[in-house]
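Question thread 4412

I'm putting together a teaching handout and wanted feedback from people who do this every day. The idea is simple: show students a protein as raw sequence, then show them the structure tokens that encode its fold, then repeat with a second protein so they can compare. Below is the first pair exactly as I plan to print it.
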Amino acid sequence: MARKSKKVESRVIKPEHIDPKRRPREGPDGLYDPANPGHRWERPLQAPGRMQVDFEERVDFRRLHEYRLARTRNALAGSKLGALLVFDQYNMRYISSTVIGEWARDKLTRWCLLTGNGEPWVWDFGSAARHHKIYAPWLPKNHCLAGNVGLRGAINPRVGLFEEAAREIKDILEQEGVADMPLGVDVVEPPFMFALQKLGLDVRDGQQVMLEAREIKSHDEITLLNMAAAMGDGVYQDIYEALKPGVRESEIVAMATKRLYEMGSDCVEAINAIAGERCSPHPHNFTDRLIRPGDQAYFDIIQSYMGYRTCYYRTFTVGSATKAQIDAYKKARQWMDDAIAMLRPGVATDMVARMFPKSTVIGFETEMSAFGLNFCHGLGLGLHERPLISRLNSLKDPYELKAGMVFAVETFCPAKDGVSAARIEEEVVLTPNGAKIITLFPAQELPIANKY
């Protein structure tokens, strides 16, 4: 006997019922909050391929844009500032989702303005502003302007570019109703700041507001950071296989740099390569030194994928390892494991800092002179973000860890032979259940490359 079908009433949607903040993918009953990081802690951390595809969701870049801008708006609203004027390229990318060549990173010739009431304004290098009008539809076309204040003095300040730019900024602040409120600035050339102050603007520190905004990474940001870490995993396999007597530190750097760009890196900022007698103290560079049998050698891969960075150390010995080298590695690994075990939401940063050795334990007189050897630092668009945890600062200014933070944990231990040293670094995502390591090249025990 056939079932009687129920009559389904057609749902009528009227224009006044449409909410522009509602997203179809959320369903008709769910409102989309752009500042929600959308973490999926019940799933493994994703490291998909670089290509976009139509059969699975990977990184949603428009969602990433909206999240970063919403985080900035919320941080600005919680401050006493009326607007943010940023020159730091990481802050500019975070707010406006624009970027040009890495050569611009230290030129202070691109800047971005965001008021509490408006959309981002972008001043860029010549034709780049016109490019954004075509290829960055998330920005209002009339908010992309050409800008130049002299390329760090190459154009003499007598030309008046600083004053012209300051007037332009003040006009926008007046139009958007915040000219009487303090203006937050991150990094700036002194003449630009003086020009803003001459117009009566109250210039304050805006960098802390931006670091607060960038502190919690969204699902998309964590995915990009994990993809960047996966690139480092592959390069360390190449280094492990290539590390033989007669190879120069610089050749390893060249090989790693080439491989990273082949994988899709948009910036290889640095590859530290240190071997043999150069290991202690840590020089933070590379040379053309030849690798020799029995050398301890450590490397740091500092690069970015879609702007999101790695800071990823690994230590090897070449052919064989001495007891002094193995012992140093075990100590560095123990400090690493002790620190990672403490990393949980709600834990104060001073408690983590106490897991690291005092400066005197590794042969340094002060915490300042030992800084950067045993510590944690946030990772994102910048290499050093929040949280930054060390004995230098965290015992004086502790704060609480939160789920969604991503940071690197670094340890260093000099060997008793006076020249060797172990250097390890793990990148971690702070989940509600603790730290999840995303740097996966094996590092629990000292790797011996091309063992004899």
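The second pair follows. I'd like the answer to focus on this one:
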Amino acid sequence: MDSPKLNRRDFFKLAGAAGAGIALSSVSNVAMAALPEIVSSEKADTHAPLHPDTGRPYNPVVTLNGWSLPWRMNNGVKEFHLVAEPVVREIAPGMKAHLWGYNGQSPGPTIEVVEGDRVRIFVTNRLPEKTSIHWHGQRLPNGMDGVSGLTQPAIMPGKTFVYEFVAKRPGTFMYHPHADEMTQMAMGLMGSWITHFKDTKTMPVDRDFVFLLNAYDIEPGSYKPKTNTMLNFNLWTWNSRAFPGIDPLVVRKNDRVRIRVGNLTMTNHPIHLHGHEFMVTGTDGGWVPPSARWPEVTTDIAVGQMRALEFLADELGDWALHCHKSHHTMNAMGHEVPTLLDVKQDDLVKKISNLVPDYMAMGETGMSEMSDMAAMMDMPLPENTLPMMTGTGQYGAIEMGGMFSTLKVREGLARNDYKDPGPYRHPKGSVAREYDGSDQAPEIKRPQIKDEAPAVEVQVRKPGGHGEHSGH
């Protein structure tokens, strides 16, 4: 039997690798066996960074609730193998979704390469329909751009194509289909791509995170997204996870931190970080020159865009990181509930309770009562459905969902320690609390206005009586 290298070289010679994604359907079983090993993971946890043992050195990223795809080196080419396939993704504990993804997960694994790498990606289609992959933001030959019908034939079910190009530009990119895009992206087909600087000393950071914004419309009690939805999504997720299923971003105090965020939803997302200000250092077009950066605590990420945010984590604590659209920090069931604030429901509850014994009034004083009742009474939900507002912290219900997580800044962490350190232990006297009179309240003084006009004497006359004077 010939060596895999010979078969691979023969295959590329016969198939003519320059130009477009190429079908492997007609090659021999020996050549197919020579493909890179398929590496999969179904765990929804944040994996440890992938430190390279082959190829050029780089500073790896950490994919939030995800992982990076291993590769092999073949005659100086970095080879990956992606498999588009149906997957089961846990959105958060208590809910799983039947999605489409790559290598066992949605989104698929992050691909990490180095500026100047020649990259070869084999793509096997195990979906029930044809697909392709567009390498969003990359500079590459037109035939490798991944738009089925325009730049290449579609990858039919059961077939394997190969893409090959040089990663020319460092930055943060994405990959996703350009074939029946509405269906396939609504089902979760997407992933992140990082091209690192060739010089590891360029823009170094201590912790580098990446995740994608995506959204689903999954009716309560069901498992599969509705693929024709344009606006009424009910699950807003980061890397197909909703709070409290989204892991915290754990960093050491005084770490230089980068958070890379790509948006493949149908709307924009103002991403807001508490306790720190950051600089937007990267966009789809590359890295922003230092002279063009400015401080923010919220940055709006539009559809199809990515942003790299950088800051110094110099404030200890558990800081919220979330989308600032309030409906995007809620889970399913919440968007079509009528507003019942101040609506007294006592009589209605009595009448309905005769028919539905477990019925309870909701929304009379706000939606917080729903999370309180759920906690106290173990309020039942439809099968495979998350509470609209959920999550518990050391002081009670957090009342969030969807696109919400925390930045946990701690002292004394090891360099590569990303484990959740648990709740922050606040120094004594540093937590907001109910005022009980034990502290001396500051005197509230009316401010003095310079050249203030003197009080005007007015006359107040009582009915049937004499007038009295009062100064105002």
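Top answer:
Good format. For the second protein you could add a caption like this: The longest helix spans residues 4-15. The longest strand covers residues 77-92.
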